[in-house]
Write a structure and sequence with these properties.
Blueprint: E1 2-6, H1 15-34, H2 38-45, H3 49-55, H4 58-66, H5 74-95, H6 97-117, H7 130-143, E2 148-155, E3 158-165, H8 166-183, H9 194-208
Antiparallel strand pairs: 1-2, 2-3
Helix pairs in contact: 1-5, 3-6, 5-6, 5-7, 6-7, 6-9, 7-8, 7-9, 8-9
Length: 223
């Protein structure tokens, strides 16, 4: 399923969300310009579990943050930025700009660490904003369970756009991550870091708890 939009409009301008979108896109264009040097860039700035847990040091720990802004290919960044664009503005509106920055980074850290502790010996760098964005999704399902998500759903060879409650759309998304995540525990090779998604989602869910009853009058739907 691919989300197209939600029916909740934020009352404030999502400045931080715009900045995050911009940084990710700029970094991606820089990656494209590197050509054959891209692999070395990812090795240096991607979050490698072995380096974080065994080598340590400031440079290794900083890759936890730098890895959140690096993407492997066009489809990778497109999917992440689409989810960020649709869901992050409402979370930023609900918890505030500064708190949202902290929230986003903490969710990204939780994502890297959960993936890392299950594959400490892995020397494959992890990159992508999906761990932090998963935190946004965790907060969204808690704070806006009745919001409607316009999703593109495949039916055989056809695609159909239909509205789903966010709790259904994101619930299915999380179940998918969980099932595949359990099957990849301990894997050292590349691929999708499903456990990072789970870690970010749970972190976002927990961090959003204090905001459940805050600013309810700021929500409204577009019919």
């Amino acid at each position: 399923m691919l989300p197209l939009k939600d029916d909740i409009r934020s009352r404030t301008r999502p400045i931080v969300t715009y900045v995050l979108l911009g940084i990710n896109i700029i970094v991606f264009f820089y990656e494209v310009s590197l050509g054959s040097h891209l692999n070395n860039f990812i090795q240096v700035y991607g979050a490698t579990p072995y380096n974080i847990f065994y080598r340590g040091g400031l440079s290794s720990y900083m890759t936890i943050f730098s890895s959140m802004f690096i993407h492997a290919n066009l489809m990778h960044i497109f999917g992440n930025m689409l989810f960020l664009w649709i869901f992050a503005d409402n979370i930023e509106d609900r918890i505030g700009h500064i708190k949202f920055i902290i929230f986003y980074l903490v969710c990204g850290i939780a994502a890297v660490l959960l993936h890392g502790v299950t594959a400490m010996d892995s020397q494959v760098p992890m990159v992508g904003a999906s761990g932090a964005i998963s935190g946004v999704l965790g907060a969204y399902i808690l704070l806006y369970p009745k919001a409607r998500i316009l999703a593109l759903i495949p039916f055989g060879f056809f695609l159909r756009a239909t509205y789903l409650p966010s709790v259904i759309f994101l619930g299915i998304w999380f179940l998918y991550q969980f099932l595949f995540g359990v099957s990849t525990i301990g894997a050292k090779g590349g691929g999708v870091a499903y456990l990072a998604h789970i870690g970010g989602f749970i972190a976002g869910l927990l961090l959003a708890l204090p905001f459940r009853k805050k600013r309810k009058n700021y929500e409204y739907t577009i019919l």
